[in-house]
Amino acid sequence: MADRVTAIEQRLLHRHPVSGLPTREPLFAAIAASPDGVLGVIHLLDLERLQAFDEALADHVLAALAERVVRMLGAGALVAQVDRARLAVWFGTETPAEVADTKLQALGYALGEAVSFGQREVLPEIRISHAHMSDHGIAPATLLARVSASRSGGADISAPATDDPLIAAQQLYALEQDLRRAVARGELELAYQPLVDAQAGAVCGAEALLRWRHPEHGLVSPTRFVPIMEAAGLADEIGLWAINAACREAGTWRRLGLGPLRVAVNISGHQLDRRDLVTLIERTLARHSLSSDLFEIELTETIAAGDVDRIAALFGRLRRLGVAIAIDDFGTGYSSFSTLRTLRFDKLKIDREFVTAVDRRRDSQAICRAILELGQGLGIRVLAEGVETAAEYSWLNAQGCRHFQGYYFARPLDPAAFRAFVQDERRLSGLLAPLSDPVSERLRA
Fold this sequence. Notes:
Protein name: EAL domain-containing protein
Domain EAL: 172-426
Oligomer: single chain
Number of helices: 20
Pfam family, one: EAL
Organism: Sphingomonas oryzagri
Helix content: 40-55%
Strand order of the largest sheet: 7-8-10-11-12-13-14-15
């Protein structure tokens, strides 16, 4: 009897109590027995956060995901629970490496499907990393550690304004879950802020700005949901939606005969990491019959200051396609003069920090003059963003700035309002007219 109890205890030691999967020891033994294989690690990114405020739901999600993995892979692989929020999959020599890679990719899609728990649904956040054992020749435990550590982390997410950490965690998790469904539910939209060419006296395009209209909370501030989007790994999906929606709208401008209006879309660092970004942009432009010279990407200085050689190669491909490239918030990041020369931007946007009250602040005036001279010397268009008063516009225009964006001209507009603004030539002419006296400024403000 004692021997039987001991045997049961030993078996339990090598099985996870929630998922029922083997633990590390059986995994390491399988790798040692057949070292020429593929090891995959499934990262359940939000499981520990969910467990912090709803352990029963977290256990249910873990068990459901483990069951999906085992059902999909069958007897062709060993599935193990290596810690609370990570599963490992070992494909031995009987499974070709390319087949293992394909199966892991399929798992990534399947595990992202919703898990039901009573009246609730959870959309799991999954990342999968993998390595070929033959490429490393190291101990199984070391390989597991390296593959587990290969997942790139996300940005920090600020918690809701509440003194109760449990409530804050619940609210944050619920908002993230809602954002995962936002594209499918049609809750995302783009607003368009006019880009004005003062020399031509016309609107020359618009920046497409992402908005989330939550069914219960109304418009959620981008400062609230964008960090969640990036940390939750949604930047690719939502970014591609934004590119598609912006190109569709720009195609409408062309069909309505509104002139050669260029649409500018913000691109995140996550999107720049995509090897197929240029191909995706090219296909999207073709889908909407939009000329590439009517599409512009915007990115921040911080992103541009990364791997300059890699980004320069990407910019070269985009430029050969005909897409323009703008650097946003110029003056607040880390761009060096050599970076500007290497990457060859088409447009610099002076950050609103230096535009605000530029008519009265000598330090801002010196910075804006320097940026305008830099742009002229490099042959790069310069746009002042965040222009909110007639005095700011008038001072910048007197210094040779020709392109503008900001509340002085228009706030971000819905598609219909933007089209109406483009066609209201009289209104724009009034805004662009030089100031004659302080009374005129007060009337325009």
